[in-house]
């Protein structure tokens, strides 16, 4: 059984996808309502498809360019394989396909939810959450399927057809696999940023001319931008979020695999386990696989029975599913970790030497990840939730005008970084202390195991929002809108907490990628006391800030185009305001599509261009490749730290403003007086929400992709910069081992110096052992004994390079 | 002459102070106008004094607490001296005294400027700029006087009475001297933060009730908060900015001295020059000393002749003075560097070994600093200047409401980090590449050399602003206000560029302190691949964000108290609106004073508490002191990177909103139509300015102090964490040198291992030489020859510790 474990994740992924197809056909079989409803839904469906098609056209150009670049790199750098191009293209296709499934099901489920809401709330929840489940399983299933399939192909058929050889070969496998992750994350960049611009441009355009200038209500069918607005909800919140988590999922598991390989290396390059010697590498894949099944169980628990249920019951049903799946993942982690890992492992802690780590400590790391995932949602909920202190304060400050409302919202977003960052810092520290960077990566893997469930909870929000829109546009009974509003309201909360989860996952994923990068390049670490590294830390810190500004400006520009189009239609189409003239919805959809795709170019270029410039310009000027690797590492750290901060700040400030505005709908008490919609204070709150919209839906969520993609690009170019580029083509010709011990002391230090010949050039390498004298002696003996093995290993690498190139 | 150079800076400082006294008495002799003007001016003077006295009372408690803490540390840690307490107290007193001089002269000059404006613009400029000059020279003179006097006392009379001994003793001198810098920066924290809160609370309070609710113009004498508002200009812009630059000045020179000491260490611990062997340490002091005289020359060039002059002529006069002083500093740097430094130096570049650096390369570093100081002002000017593209865009976006105005302002501030950070990064990199961290510190020193001139330009703004206020309140001829408005308008521009200069100085100072910290602790560098260090990088990045939020909230709270008081007075004092009842100005002043001092506590605690917690809690839990030192270094880097970003973002966004609002005064073209004050677009711009006020005057400028103080606290506790705490009490008992060379290779590496006994415990130390074989051989010989010297040096440290403790 153990030897078959490599196929377990793929089996689970396929099971998940089968369940998805069953669920999908069940949703599709539901009644999609009368003619008007169907017509509106079709408009949304077509608009969404139009966006996706336009996006995919653009992306295929992008994919071709990057593929050529990767092929060129593979040609010139002997340690990289052409197969990375295939992996990259498939990563992009899988991610796009997952987005496609999500968008299609979301735009088909919305009208069915409206129809179900005519009869009862429980069935409306069942359908909308069913749509979300399809989306979640599609993303998670394809992510695991793609990643594990490529791993098996590269491992079993290309690089190590005869079974485990050594960690260097496995590094080649994983470096090639990084292409899949890069492809997925590239799609995510454009889906998140483009989607974010799309949704806000349509929203602002529809509101500014429709609500404010023409005085017609939200989702009014006379508003030409209303379809674009509803498409936007799907494009941004469904496809964008899906691509984001698809990327995180793949990257997290990959990073954990890379670090698992380094655990094997630290243990001497070989472990003798029942899993073909790759237990630590298989573990994150297995957790991901089991997570899919657990998510299915979780989704089955989400249901309500009473037709009179309100928000708390719906929220309760979602929470039940969520908590149960988290608990099951914890249990599964215990089982998998103790089964798949050696009871004790040796891990090399930077600056502390090799430390014995028990498999239980790895399990505790996974608990850290699950804890962070759960707590970050509560933190987000506190700072952005209706009725909570921060929101009440913003409401209070709205009474003195828009200026004080804005200040209060900004301050709330800023303050919210305090608990979030302390939580992340504690998580990094503790999971590292438990099991090194492998622990950090497994914490992230455990947290991401429930991705399918998280996405189901997340996607049901915009579906319900759309359902409400369709009810409004097709002029249904008020009871229908009331029911969808309950779902929508819960969806707003889950949207905020889902963003918290997405940030946490991006942060931990980036750290794991960062650690994988350092191990890939073989640098000693990233020392910010070197001025070029420090300078790049500064530059990296600046990029998320500028990226956010570009995204916000993009929304502004795209919205202005939308405003002009809506104004034009109101003026030129006769009878449009009376409901006799038909608005040209497709023109608005086209504008949003075109503008968002155009405007995402510059931020995209910034994200991809900066790391490439930092890596290649100094190389061209003759800087040493390891120095460049360290600089790029500094840049990655800067982007991650600053990106996480700006993500939290912008998401929470945006969420807080949104709910401060919504507070006025039920009425709020300001200085002892009840204040409602339409008051001056409410107007101030609306201004705050206008500022918050691009914060929370465009620039804030884009930060996730920015930090992950930056670290992934680093990982992909790591072989070019890396130290193991040396040894990869090295031939150990001349090994001179010298050692010395310190006399008259219990403490001992031994330094072993040996030379290897890399491409004909002699390189001096040292290895240092420190500690109690007897330990050091043992280690020296092992090193000497290992000498022949090392020469063999170097030869092996040459062989495998030859195989790869042949 | 060379041997007397140590007294040169002190002589220059005294010269500067003498010139300051002459200038001061000249200003005081000017006509202070009629009864009403004098009365208002006296109110402002008394209000400012009341704030200063209240602040000093509070600060003396703070100084006592910190002094006790420092004394406790000095008692327990053998490598620190009790004298640091004296230095700390004097640093605080000197900084407070400099602030006092500035506030007094500013509040005396304002009315004299108003009086002079009755006759002519040139004499109004002469007087207001004269006041600024007094302020600038007071700050620079006292900074150089205090720092150099303490250096001479510690060096010549306490630690090395018989002349140069070794770099370890000099490290003790400089560590003790760090107390002076810490004292100065502590005062700056409270002056900047407290002043920032004060000025905005009074401003918002005066505007909200006076202008908006009661409909009376700005600076109307019937407004009870108007005096507090004018006091605030002095408290924030004069005393706050003065304390900020006082702190930067001292810290920069100190950091450069520390790094100069390490240059001597890298050169073998001894250089034989005409300056008593301390040329590299004296150089930054000398540049500062000469800078004072150069600044006096610069101020003499600031004058205009025509009474019909407008803003460009006034600006031109200021620019002339500024550019000439920068050019003179460049010339002086050339002379001093080539005269005082050895022609070539050996500097140890981390990871690259020892490199030969010519003194000319140090000179080029100073040019880098001067370049950054000049360019950052232009960058700031571009993003915040009237009529520039970013401002026009914000104006344009104001037409669609406050929301879009806010987004545009935020985006402008965010985008402005792009050129600024690239500039800083390029400066760090290039000055480091030229001459290591000594080069970075000297770049900062050169930039700061014109501090007196910069402050004169800076302080003249609020003086002119006040002069205009007095003209308004005492109901002078419109021509008087027109003239003061010209000065005020130029003052607004110089205020923005001055903030750019302050950020640049804070950034470079922090980097220099950071480098000094690493050398003080003796750690290998700061490796962010260690998870605890990375976690602290995150925490450090979060602190400026939370600090900013606290400062903004503080303004809100303090402003609310002011609003209530003004409302109360309008209601309760009979005849106040008719001008027959006298407003109780002092009550408003008292409220601003009390509120600002209360509200600055929490941010202050955050600033000081975080580094202490990070250093001492892990120590208590038994973490190794070098690991703690590295973590604290990570924290410092996080604060610096994030702090610089948030400083630029907030200052420039605030400045941009301010000038977007001001654009409406002259009228702006929006969509082809001229739009003026009172329009909807203008109202939107006013909202933006409300948000921008605390950004640019409270939280933004506080960032400078936050990052400098964080790095200084690190520097002061460095001896506790430091590696040289070991060797400080070490006795080299058992030196075993072993070495080995690699055969059959041109490249060689030698590792020398020796043990020393530290407090009875044996510690193994290694020293590694890499490079061409013959070089390595030479170095090993030098190391062996140096062995006896090293034992002597260790004995010496024991001796000097004994002397210190006796």
From TrEMBL, chains A, B:
<feature type="transmembrane region" description="Helical">
    <location>
        <begin position="323"/>
        <end position="342"/>
    </location>
</feature>
<feature type="transmembrane region" description="Helical">
    <location>
        <begin position="6"/>
        <end position="22"/>
    </location>
</feature>
<dbReference type="Pfam" id="PF03030">
    <property type="entry name" value="H_PPase"/>
</dbReference>
<feature type="site" description="Determinant of potassium dependence">
    <location>
        <position position="495"/>
    </location>
</feature>
<dbReference type="GO" id="GO:0006814">
    <property type="term" value="P:sodium ion transport"/>
</dbReference>
<keyword id="KW-0812">Transmembrane</keyword>
<keyword id="KW-0915">Sodium</keyword>
<keyword id="KW-1003">Cell membrane</keyword>
<feature type="transmembrane region" description="Helical">
    <location>
        <begin position="170"/>
        <end position="191"/>
    </location>
</feature>
<feature type="transmembrane region" description="Helical">
    <location>
        <begin position="246"/>
        <end position="264"/>
    </location>
</feature>
<dbReference type="GO" id="GO:0009678">
    <property type="term" value="F:diphosphate hydrolysis-driven proton transmembrane transporter activity"/>
</dbReference>
<feature type="transmembrane region" description="Helical">
    <location>
        <begin position="601"/>
        <end position="621"/>
    </location>
</feature>
<keyword id="KW-1133">Transmembrane helix</keyword>
<comment type="subunit">
    <text>Homodimer.</text>
</comment>
<keyword id="KW-1278">Translocase</keyword>
<dbReference type="InterPro" id="IPR004131">
    <property type="entry name" value="PPase-energised_H-pump"/>
</dbReference>
<dbReference type="GO" id="GO:0012505">
    <property type="term" value="C:endomembrane system"/>
</dbReference>
<feature type="transmembrane region" description="Helical">
    <location>
        <begin position="58"/>
        <end position="77"/>
    </location>
</feature>
<dbReference type="GO" id="GO:0005886">
    <property type="term" value="C:plasma membrane"/>
</dbReference>
<keyword id="KW-0460">Magnesium</keyword>
<dbReference type="GO" id="GO:0030955">
    <property type="term" value="F:potassium ion binding"/>
</dbReference>
<keyword id="KW-0630">Potassium</keyword>
<feature type="transmembrane region" description="Helical">
    <location>
        <begin position="83"/>
        <end position="106"/>
    </location>
</feature>
<comment type="similarity">
    <text>Belongs to the H(+)-translocating pyrophosphatase (TC 3.A.10) family. K(+)-stimulated subfamily.</text>
</comment>
<feature type="transmembrane region" description="Helical">
    <location>
        <begin position="627"/>
        <end position="649"/>
    </location>
</feature>
<protein>
    <recommendedName>
        <fullName>Putative K(+)-stimulated pyrophosphate-energized sodium pump</fullName>
        <ecNumber>7.2.3.1</ecNumber>
    </recommendedName>
</protein>
<feature type="transmembrane region" description="Helical">
    <location>
        <begin position="127"/>
        <end position="158"/>
    </location>
</feature>
<dbReference type="GO" id="GO:0004427">
    <property type="term" value="F:inorganic diphosphate phosphatase activity"/>
</dbReference>
<keyword id="KW-0406">Ion transport</keyword>
<feature type="transmembrane region" description="Helical">
    <location>
        <begin position="405"/>
        <end position="429"/>
    </location>
</feature>
<dbReference type="GO" id="GO:0000287">
    <property type="term" value="F:magnesium ion binding"/>
</dbReference>
<feature type="transmembrane region" description="Helical">
    <location>
        <begin position="532"/>
        <end position="552"/>
    </location>
</feature>
<feature type="transmembrane region" description="Helical">
    <location>
        <begin position="501"/>
        <end position="520"/>
    </location>
</feature>
<feature type="transmembrane region" description="Helical">
    <location>
        <begin position="435"/>
        <end position="457"/>
    </location>
</feature>
<keyword id="KW-0472">Membrane</keyword>
<feature type="transmembrane region" description="Helical">
    <location>
        <begin position="276"/>
        <end position="302"/>
    </location>
</feature>
<comment type="function">
    <text>Sodium pump that utilizes the energy of pyrophosphate hydrolysis as the driving force for Na(+) movement across the membrane.</text>
</comment>
<keyword id="KW-0813">Transport</keyword>
<feature type="transmembrane region" description="Helical">
    <location>
        <begin position="362"/>
        <end position="384"/>
    </location>
</feature>
<keyword id="KW-0739">Sodium transport</keyword>
